[in-house]
Design brief:
heterodimer; A: alpha+beta; Heat Shock Protein 90; 5-stranded mixed beta sheet; 10 helices; B: Rossmann fold; 2 domains; 11 strands
């Protein structure tokens, strides 16, 4: 119940519908009461008129016979509104109306015994006066019946009106609902303006709000850009001093030094290499966020595989890891070469780093309904299921992995994947008994280009060679 | 070899100059674009190492000015600008090669020699990756002190791999190199040639990359 109350309290649409419905119901009730009273009063007026007319029919000549007819009326048994005619003055115990003879002419309501009567008194001739009466309870019943009949339209129309109010309000709020849905499906990095002029049905009241919102979005966009620019600039500025350090180290490397100095120099040199890698990864991340300015494009996976292997085979060989491609990789994916290269390089680099010596890393491509997935599998320790969501965080490293990577690799991959509309999933490698991580990058559907492979990309016939 | 070094960063300039001297190059070091342009007019260099972010006249303008004066001197850009667009612009404006900071001096020297050699029109230099070397003139390969002549197809295959050590070539690409247009491709020819090259030059000479192709290692 609490939840519903809160929903009604927060939703303008529900609040509007509710209050309009309450207003409709209240006016229906007020109009009903008024109409009931008016009809009741009107019915009584008409009956008074009728009573007067009956009274005018009574003359000195016919008064006795009319009074005689009324004598037998027993109000308890006859529910019909009976008009009683009776002469005033001469005392008779059987008389229905016990009226004082001095009653002046005119119409009035009298209480006689436990009944209420509406009575008209007329003087027919000197000494002959007549009273024509009717029980008010009977009259009221008639009046009430006719008044109740006037309430029926209100009873029927009020619920219909409430329904109409709900439908109308809902209809009025449709452009807003549409706008909300549109904003909801926006990707996280999309800070572009909300279209204000696009929907002619969009209420004018909402436009200033949207314009203000757009201004805020622009400010946020600017500050996000500034922040990114700062990361890129900082990494960029680090390059020059780093160049100096690396070049000096390179010169030092070839000079004579004692064993102890050599040992320390090696440690220093490793630190420099690591710093260089971190700066490069920071720049790659900055570029991954901004996009590299190259239009979205199709790239051949086979070529990208080859490039990344050419880059990383020295590392794989140093770590005695058997790295290769399985199956046919002659497929195009919707990503430009730089993005695809950065994604593969980081995934394969991770796979090589986290796989123990003598292990294996496999790259492959799978297609299903024009949807292409690139899979990188290794025989490393894998990533525990509860850590899989966190490894995309910047600078997060799986504890105890003993690796000295930048901690940015998967974050870069994730950033690029999000930007180009690809999805990234971590799972267990197919060779389960050896453990291992399986990373799948699934690209959006595309149609493969009609004339495939240019000769430079041609590695179609790469049958498993005899090594 | 006399080299003009254009670099405004004092520390980088110093160490690059010293490293070039160590490599027996004569070095003139200038710190802005204007000085660079006047130096090029006065002296003749065999190569220029050009930074892009320079005071007074920026590196790209220096590059364009040199090329506009019909000077074909080999120019190697060294820069911290890593955007692909910058790289393409540099090469389009007439730079011979492009090295990104932070770099290693050995790489700069290797590229410097390569562009100078290319400009000098030395055809078919001896190819080497540090362990194996291949002389296109004599079809002679040497590895670990052994030197021997290769057959035509063995040479063609090894040359294809040695042009860019570290590059992986697929079976189709290797077949294209060792067979002419009208020749019938024999199955297993590539394996056969690689087997024989390995026997002659050592089993680690040519490496197989599972599912992709073959390569000779970069830098041994």
């Amino acid at each position: 119940m609490d939840g519903i109350e809160r929903r009604v309290g927060q939703s303008l649409q529900l609040r509007l519908s509710m209050w309009l419905a309450i207003a409709v119901l209240l006016s229906a009730v007020a109009a009903g009461i008024f109409s009931f009273k008016a009809a009741f009063h009107e019915a009584n007026e008409i009956q008074d008129q009728q009573l007067k007319e009956v009274a005018t029919l009574v003359t000195a000549e016919n008064v006795d016979s009319m009074a005689a007819g009324s004598v037998h009326y027993v109000p308890e048994f006859e529910p019909e509104a009976k008009v009683v005619v009776q002469k005033l003055g001469n005392v008779n115990t059987q008389r229905l109306l016990d009226l004082p003879p001095t009653l002046p002419d005119g119409m009035r309501t009298l209480t006689l015994g436990n009944r209420e009567w509406r009575v008209v008194v007329r003087t027919l001739a000197p000494g002959i006066r007549v009273a024509v009466g009717q029980q008010t309870s009977d009259r009221n019943e008639i009046a009430r019946n006719s008044a109740v009949a006037t309430l029926i339209p209100f009873l029927v129309l009020a619920p219909v009106l409430v329904g109409v109010v709900f439908l109308l309000v809902r209809h009025m709020f449709k452009p807003l609902a549409r706008l909300a849905a549109e904003l909801d499906v926006r990707p996280d990095h999309d800070l572009s303006e909300i279209r204000v002029t696009g929907d002619p049905q969009l209420p004018a009241e909402i436009v200033p709000f949207l314009v203000a919102n757009n201004r805020m979005l622009a400010r946020v966009d600017q500050s996000v850009a500034l922040q990114r620019r700062f990361i890129a600039d900082a990494a960029h500025e680090l390059r020059s001093p780093l160049t100096v350090l690396l070049l000096q180290a390179e010169r030092l490397d070839v000079s004579e030094m004692s064993t102890q100095a050599r040992e320390r120099f090696t440690a220093l040199s490793n630190g420099l290499t690591r710093t260089r890698a971190l700066v490069e990864q920071l720049l790659t991340l900055a570029h991954a966020q901004e996009g590299n300015g190259i239009e979205a494009d199709l790239s051949p996976v086979a070529l990208a595989f080859r490039r990344v292997l050419e880059d990383l085979i020295p590392l794989a060989q140093a770590r005695q890891i058997d790295i290769g491609v399985t199956g046919d990789s002659d497929i195009w994916v919707p990503a430009n070469e730089a993005d695809l290269g950065a994604v593969l390089k980081n995934l394969v680099d991770n796979a090589i780093r986290y796989t123990p010596a003598g292990g294996r890393v496999d790259l492959s491509v799978h297609t299903n309904n024009n949807q292409t997935s690139i899979v990188v599998e290794d025989t490393g320790p894998g990533i525990p299921v509860d850590e899989r969501a966190r490894v995309f965080d910047r600078f997060y490293r799986v504890l105890g992995s003993g690796q000295s990577g930048s901690g940015l690799g998967l974050s870069i991959v994730q950033t690029i994947a999000t930007r180009i509309g690809a999805s990234l999933t971590l799972g267990d490698a197919a060779w389960n008994e050896q453990g291992g991580l399986r990373v799948t990058v699934t690209f959006p559907r595309i149609d493969q280009p009609a004339e495939l492979v240019d000769s430079t990309y041609n590695c179609r016939k790469s049958r498993e060679p005899v090594a | 070899m006399r080299v003009l070094l254009v670099e405004d960063d004092w520390m980088i300039g110093e160490v690059v100059r010293d490293a070039l001297k160590d490599a027996s190059c004569g070095v003139d070091w200038v710190r802005d674009g204007q000085q660079a342009l006047s130096a090029v007019k006065v002296h003749s260099y065999e190569a220029i190492l050009l930074d892009l972010g320079l005071p007074k006249v920026d590196g790209m303008s220096v590059l364009c000015a040199i090329r506009a004066s019909n000077n074909a001197i080999p120019i190697l850009i060294i820069t911290a600008r890593d955007a692909v667009v910058d790289r393409i612009r540099g090469l389009d404006s007439g730079a011979d090669d492009y090295v990104l900071k932070p770099f290693e001096m050995s790489e700069v020297l290797a590229r410097l020699r390569a562009i100078v050699r290319r400009r000098a029109g030395v055809a078919a230099p001896v190819l080497t990756n540090g362990t194996i070397s291949l002389d296109p003139a004599t079809h002679e390969a040497s590895s670990l002190g052994i030197s021997l002549r290769l057959s035509g197809r063995e040479f063609a295959l090894l040359q294809a791999l040695m042009i860019r050590p570290g590059a992986i070539l697929s079976r189709t690409e290797l077949e294209d190199r060792i067979y002419g247009w009208n020749e019938e491709v024999e199955s297993n020819a590539v394996e056969f040639l690689i087997h024989s090259l390995r026997r002659k030059l050592g089993s680690e000479t040519i490496k197989n990359v599972r599912g992709v192709g073959w390569m000779v290692s970069k830098g041994g």
